[in-house]
From TrEMBL:
Keywords of the record: Ammonia transport, Cell membrane, Glycoprotein, Membrane, Transmembrane, Transmembrane helix, Transport
Gene Ontology CC: one annotated term: plasma membrane
Keyword match Cell membrane: yes
Name this protein carries in UniProt: Ammonium transporter AmtB-like domain-containing protein
Species assigned in the record: Coilia grayii (Gray's grenadier anchovy)
Short name of one Pfam family: Ammonium_transp
Gene3D superfamilies in the cross-refs: Ammonium transporter AmtB like domains (1.10.3430.10)
Length: 476
């Protein structure tokens, strides 16, 4: 029986309907079509196949699959929390994308008093949504859906402002989002879970268990993420050879991390068997580790090495760092996002900095000044005119050296982590407010608190009670 303090009957409808009224008003006032979706700009000379839809929609569709199916299934690994893992992911993602279209649109697509909406705008909103869903992994099973929507409501603006400031003032290279997606999402989520610390969960929870079916469903989510990760890393890179390299590097990194994960899983398992949690999470590490340098000329061998290194760091993090964070630093990272997105994100950033320092015209040719746009000569430099003859449309840069650009990358790492952690802590305190339906430790990882459950759920619960009783008898 749901207690009045956790009932969603008033809280969730009020938050949703108020948000929808506000969103509808903002859409009506500020959102219009971009040139590729506006009928006024079409005429008998317009080739429909030149529309950006055909360039951007495949990536949009792939990222949709990752967000709604990949993340959803991955988060359904707990035996008694499958409904919540998938459905709260669905709810939060839908809410976050609607909100991100407005917030991201303001910073990236706002002109003449309007947000110009197109598929690329939706794609950017999906990346902002992915940030929220990664952070969600840190508090899985410990927050109500109302708290999750509030987290999305607050995290999207903090992320968008941080992204805007870093790109505008630090002007970095971050094609795969290692800094602005993975690191931000990770440390925001850790900030939230630090505030929502539950001491009793360090000793484990009787419903914090998996099952044969839930593990299979979670691996399905991993496979969806694995298959579509090349689209995630390459969606916003320059079309052509840059995007081509991004897809190649992501696939190679993922392949290397997958093989390494299976090997390490058997090494760390006391009985020399494969652990499903490693398959569900550690196999994906290579997709993150290649992110910062994914469009650069790092070589396939380097992408392979990054996959192996990222996987190893991720595995060690799950085995040793996650328990340490929970017991010593009050950070209960439920899904280990610090391992899959934090540690691997930092490795990716270091690899990106190395790639920037090693980049030269000998390796890249004139296109170096497209990939590293801020290293292009400044306006008025004779070399800029020479390069523009080789690459028509090349824009003036800042004339940065490799060392200067590397320093800006380092500054971006620290500023992003600081902004994310501070935003997460503030958001955590807001999520603790009583009217957002927080609940006691006893109800963690339990679908029954917020769902009408099927009749066979009682048999699952009874089976758990019997298992616990047998365990106690065995100990006696």
């Amino acid at each position: 029986m749901m207690k009045q303090g956790t009932s969603l009957r008033v809280r969730l409808p009020v938050l949703v309907f108020v948000s929808e009224v506000v969103f509808l008003a903002l859409y009506a006032i500020f959102v219009t079509y971009d040139d590729n979706a506006n009928a006024k700009f079409q005429n008998n000379l317009t080739n429909p196949m030149d529309n950006s839809l055909y360039r951007d929609y495949p990536y949009f569709a792939d990222v949709q699959v990752m967000i709604f199916i990949g993340f959803g299934c991955l988060l359904a690994f707990l035996r008694f929390y499958g409904f919540s893992g998938m459905v709260f992911n669905f709810l939060t993602a839908t809410y976050a994308i609607q909100w991100a279209i407005l917030v991201q649109g303001y910073f990236q697509f706002y002109s003449d008093g309007k947000i110009h909406l197109g598929v690329i705008n939706l794609l950017n909103a999906e990346f902002a949504c992915a940030v929220v869903l990664i952070s969600f992994g840190a508090v899985l099973g410990k927050v109500s859906p109302v708290q999750l929507l509030v987290m999305a409501l607050l995290e999207i603006p903090v992320f968008s402002v941080t992204e805007w400031a870093v790109l505008k003032y630090l002007k970095i290279n971050d094609a795969g989002g290692s800094i602005l997606i993975h690191l931000f999402a990770c440390y925001f989520g850790l900030g939230v879970t630090f505030v929502l610390y539950r001491p009793s969960l360090n000793e484990g929870h009787h419903k914090e268990v998996t099952s044969y079916q839930s593990d299979i469903l979670s691996v399905m989510g991993t496979l969806f993420l694995w298959v579509f990760w090349p689209s995630f890393n390459s969606a916003l890179t320059f079309k052509g050879d840059d995007q081509h390299r991004a897809i190649l590097h992501t696939f190679i990194g993922l392949s290397a991390s997958t093989l390494t994960a299976f090997a390490l899983s058997t090494i760390f398992n006391k009985r020399g068997k494969i652990t499903m949690a490693d398959v569900q999470n550690v196999t994906l590490a290579g997709g993150v580790t290649v992110g910062a340098s994914v469009d650069m000329m790092i070589s396939p061998a380097a992408a392979y090495a990054l996959g192996v290194i990222g996987c190893t760091a991720c595995m060690l993090g799950y085995k040793y760092l996650t328990p340490f964070l929970a017991r010593r630093l009050r950070i209960q990272d439920q899904c280990g996002i610090h391992n899959l997105h934090g540690l691997t994100g930092l490795i990716s950033c270091l690899a990106g900095i190395c790639a920037i320092l090693l980049a030269s015209e000998e390796t890249y040719g004139p296109s170096m000044y497209q990939i590293f746009a801020h290293r292009a000569p400044m306006e008025g430099d004779p070399k800029l005119l020479e390069l523009q003859q080789l690459i028509p449309g090349l824009k003036p840069g800042l004339g940065r050296t490799a060392e200067v650009q590397a320093m800006y990358q380092v500054a971006a790492i620290f500023s992003t982590i600081a902004a994310a952690a501070l935003g997460g802590v503030v958001t955590g305190f807001i999520m603790k407010l009583p009217f957002l339906a927080p609940f006691s430790d006893d109800f963690c990882f339990d679908d029954e608190l917020f769902f009408d459950m099927p009749s066979d759920f009682d048999s699952l619960t009874a089976g758990l009670v019997k298992e616990m009783s047998n365990d106690e008898n065995t100990k006696v």
